[in-house]
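Incident log, structure service

09:12 report received: a user says their structure output differs between two submissions of the same chain.
09:20 pulled the input from the user's history:
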Amino acid sequence: MKSVLVLFISTLSFFNIVTAQQAYTWDEYGISFTLADDFKETVNNAEEFSADGDGMSLSIIPFLDESIDDSDITGYTMSIAASLNLGRIDDVSVIDVNGFKGAYAEGASDGAKIFIMGLIDPNSATNFFVIITFLDEDANAIEEAVNICKSIRKI
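09:34 re-ran on a clean worker, output below:
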């Protein structure tokens, strides 16, 4: 009986997590991603996709450059981070996410944590910068930002 109760609670928790997400598709660029259900789309055009949630903002900015490869994206990402005048940069890493190559930097400025992720599509000239901001000490937001980044994929 106890194992059935644990299974039932686990199942409810799983469905609560699943229903707390909303899927977005940016048809213009053939990518999809998930955001928490409190996010509201603020911009959706050829130059930008942005949405705001409870204490968090997301922007995805496409850029065209067919010559860029995974050895260049770290420098591109760091140049975007530098342009934001971050007070500190906590982490810089190379990533491979759902068919994209890229890099990300984590930084902070004026009490806000900023994730900057540069993604290149090895099969296209269209690449993306993803910028997510939230309060610096919000541990839940860090996990949510990581989940958003992991959810970005080509469709």
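09:41 both user submissions now match this output. Likely a transient worker issue. Closing.
09:42 reviewer note: Residues 1-19 have pLDDT under 50 and may be disordered. The chain has one domain: 23-154.
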